[in-house]
Amino acid sequence: MSLMLMLGISLTVAAGVLLALSRDLFRLIVGLAVLGSATNLIVFMAARPGSLIPPLVEAGTQQLSTAAANPLPQALVLTAIVIGFALLCFALVLGAWLAGNSAGDADQLRDAEPAATDAVKPPVLEP
Amino acid sequence: MSHGSHTETHGPTYLWLAAVPLTLFLLLAWGLARYDLPWRGEVSWIPSLGVSLAFRIDGLSAQMLALITGIGTWIFVYASGYLAHEPRRGQLFAILILFMLAMIGAVTADNLVVLFLFWELTSITSFLLVGFNHEQASARAAARQALLITMGGGLALLGGLVLLGQMAGSWTLSGIVAAGPALVDDPRLPYALPLVLLGAFTKSAQFPFHFWLPNAMSAPTPVSAYLHSATMVKLGIYLMARLDPAFNDLLFWEVMLIGTGTVTAVWAAVLALRERDLKRILARSTVSALGTLTLLIGLPSPGAGLAVVAFLFAHALYKAPLFMVAGNIDHATGTRNIDHLMGLRRAMPLTAAAAVLAGLSMAGLPLSFGFVAKDAISIAKSEAEVLLLVSYATVFVNAIAVAVAGVAAIRVFWGPPESPRGQVHEVSWRMFVPPLAIVLLGIEFDFFPALADPLLLAAARTISPELGAVDLSAAYDLNVLLSATGMTAVVGLLFFLTWDRLHHALHRLHWLDRFGPAALYESLLNALTRIAAWQTRLLQHGRLSGYMRLTFLALLAMGAYIWLHTDSRVVLQWNWSTHAWAWIVACLLIVTGAGAALLLRDRLGVLMASGLVGYGSAVLFLFAGAPDLAFTQFAVETVLVVVAASVLPRYGRAVSRREPWRWVNGVLAVAAGAGTFLLLAHLQGLPVNTELADGFGRMSLPEAHGHNVVNVIIVDFRALDTLGEIVVVAFSLLAALPLLGGIRKGRTS
Amino acid sequence: MPRSALLTQAARPLYWLMLAAAVWILLRGHNAPGGGFIGGLVAVAGSSLLAITLGPAVARRLQPLAPLPLAMSGVGLALLAGLAGVATGMPFLTHVWTDMGLSTVMLFDVGVFLAVWGALTGYVFALLDNGRQTP
To answer: How far is CA B51 from CA A86, B47, B165, B171, C128, in A?
Structure first.
């Protein structure tokens, strides 16, 4: 793995975090998507890819050649891409639904949160 | 209860359910007659954790079983009458059955984990039963109190049992008892025993946890009679009795049990004088009796075991009927306040008879099983050379018991009848037969001790193995006993006659309540609510970006912690290979995309830029031997364009908002980037473990018949993960559909 | 949405072509790059193309089931494939092969394919529906 790629992924993570911390709901969601891609890359890179040969067992042999790429991170990342995409779709839809009430402001979401004026009710046991 | 209206609600009375405990009782009797104790059974459950469904029935278990099923039978009969007007009685019976099974499990379990599970199950069913009248706020609060205290004690018990199990190297109660003397020097014992005792004390309402039991009286009366006098509250006593042979020689054990037991017995007896509600008076005296039992277990003499089982038995045989009597009075008159109850003897002769017989036993007068029990107790105490203070305390406690018996059996039934408020009349047979049956059983045991003796002696030998052969009823020294009984009776009579005056004197001390354990419980619960409200407002403020900041901060903190605690070797290298040019292109695409997404204001632009990150990744995958990934990523990015383009208009125009936290955000982002770099550089220095990958590569074709190892991993080797993933994908749509409908409506309106 | 006549004419054949490609990718997946996830995504791309050019109603009609049932049937199929192993006395999700080369692995991958196809077209169709309602 080259230094350049490490730098690139790190910059992507930084950009993703900054986007995800935005007050704008849409940018926040895009930030999560960028972070997802970056995480996939980190997992992929963790296995130190270097081979160009896909992990396919060649015809006539019984097992994977040692020259082939590591199949394990590929399987992990493949499902992560699809599941990440499904959740991104959901987040986009949820965001669009929320945007109707908050004008897309991520800091105006109050659905389950108690208002500051809600009274605290202490439990009472009759004597 | 909806008394007054005598229209029985339609539907089954569930009288037939009494056949369940009855069958179990008969099975037990048949088994006891045929087979020698102990009986064992074991089914393997979680062998790796040493958990097996191990059950063991010895004398003590058999005695508890006899109480649970025998009294249970009559409780079910009684409940079918008492709840005739209750529309939700089906629920109550279901929980009662569940409770009975849990109780049977708890007293027969030998494995510690199984014991704990059943123990907690009894707490949960008790919670449901106390809170049965859930429309009343006080019933809910009482149910919560019972649950919090017994469950909190249950947690302590779990800790104690785990420690004991580790110390003894055996996960069974019998193993711990067998290992008993060897455990004394173990350094973990000072932690294990207090924890176990905490569990037992909370369950059996010992001081300072005594206050939950009277509050639990908001449960329907059959529940009070069954759970909160005869069975469940005896579970703590049962556990202490079971462990007693192992720890009886320990000074700590002796002091804790005798001390707590005495304090509980005396204090609860005093508090009984403060109550006006018949059920609460009985509940206080139950707590007092539980204290006496704890005290007896703590006594080191061999006779103590006999005293415990005899008193346990006697108490169940008179207290359950007394509760039923209280329930009958409540049912017939609509009140349980002893100030309004007088002269019920004429209206309710059979209930009155049951009350008098039970009262005799409670007072420990001759003709009753209570007399036998009291006899065993005085023998145990004379053997054990107890402190004089404890002796005086027991006399006082017994005297109060006499007074309580007087109140429950005489005061409310004799005297001139209170002006009738509505027609007071005897209750149905299903409500007066059970208390009569149980007290008559007790008297029968007095005349024919041979019926109960073998069982009681077997139970007593579980607690005091050194106990010789004793004839229970013939053992007592008549003179000593009669003088002791006589003294108790006289003092008790004095208390009975001055009950109202004592009550008023004690009532004036009610300001002391503010410093009691019940008040402490209240204020702790209040503090908990306040802390919860405070931290909820602090953390759940409704600002999504704030939540995100907190999340990233926590992640970074965890990462930093791990980083500081690892020997880090950062490796930085630039290895050029033939396909490096492709990686450079990919990397440029990714970084450009991320940067552009950050800088662009227009939403479509942001989206397209983020797509570049994906396309760049795809190029990278393509030149890293991962065509599957490249395909997937390309396809995803293509579909994303369609989805995003159609959802984009819903977000409205992009407004540039002030970011009040932008400096913090910037610092967090830089820290996240730097952390990622460190992580990746650290990974460089670690060896690659290809064991799994090699295994998959080796087995893919021969065992899974697939050339594409990635696909074989997904659909075969790790198919369960994949199944979970497609479930998430499919259910995300399910979750989104209502939202999609909402968006549509918002648009048209 | 302005439509090009060429695209409108080509949409249906293109859809079937892409679907055929998707199935081909799905079937070869066990031995060559491809598989249920990728095949499913290609099918989604095909359905999206059709939905954009001719409307989601047409695209829906040319699917075997409505999106949500399609996705759920995929999950069900995958579960069923797993249960086949249980039926032969092996742990859940142990795959079974027959002599003719058919296997529950293929069934499982078809389940993955359908789940992805159904779930993602569900989003696409619903969102395009919304877009169409705008005045």
So the answer is: 41, 6, 11, 7, 56
Neighbour subunits, C (≥3 Cβ pairs < 8 A): A, B
Does the residue B609 lie in any domain? Answer: yes
Task: For tokens 């293109």, name the residue.
Answer: C14
Q: Whole domain around residue A99: which residue ranges?
A: 25-50+70-106
Q: Please classify residue B523 by burial: count the beta carbons closer than 10 Å to its beta carbon, then call 0-12 exposed, 13-18 middle and 19+ buried.
A: exposed
Which residue in C has a C-alpha nearest to residue A86's C-alpha?
C120
CB contact under 8 A, C37 and A78: yes
**Which residues, at least 6 apart from B545, have a Cβ–Cβ distance to it below 8 Å?**
A21, A22, A23, A28, A106, A107, B661
CB atoms within 10 A of CB B158: 20
How many distinct structural domains can be found in chain B? 2
Q: What is the pLDDT of residue B517?
A: 87
Question: Residue B419 pLDDT more than 80?
Answer: no
Could you tell me if residue A77 is inside a domain?
Answer: yes
Domain ranges of chain C: 5-133
Q: Which of C36, C38, C68 sits opposite B733 (nearest CB)?
A: C68
Give the pLDDT band (50/70/90) at residue C135. very low
How is residue B608 written in tokens? 């397209």
**Residue of C33, C44, C95 lying closest to B631 (CB–CB):** C33
Domains in chain A: how many in total?
1
Rg of chain C taking only CA atoms, in angstroms: 17
Same-domain pairing of B506 and B540: no
Regarding whether B258 and B189 lie in a shared domain, the answer is yes
Q: Considering the domain boundaries, does residue B107 fall inside one?
A: yes
Mutate which of B621, B634, B714, B733 to test chain A, going by most A C-beta atoms within 10 A? B621
Contacts of A79 in chain C (CB under 8 A): 37
The rounded distance, in Å, linking the Cα atoms of B476 and A10 is 87
The 10s digit of each residue's pLDDT in A66-96 is: 888 889 899 999 989 998 999 999 999 988 8
Alpha-carbon distance of B11 to B477, in angstroms, equals: 55
What is the complex's ipTM, to 2 decimals? 0.91
What range does the domain containing B149 cover?
15-511
The list of chain A residues with pLDDT below 70 reads 1, 101-104, 111-112, 114-127
Q: Cβ distance B393 to B270 under 8 Å?
A: no
Better-scored residue on pLDDT, C109 or B370: C109
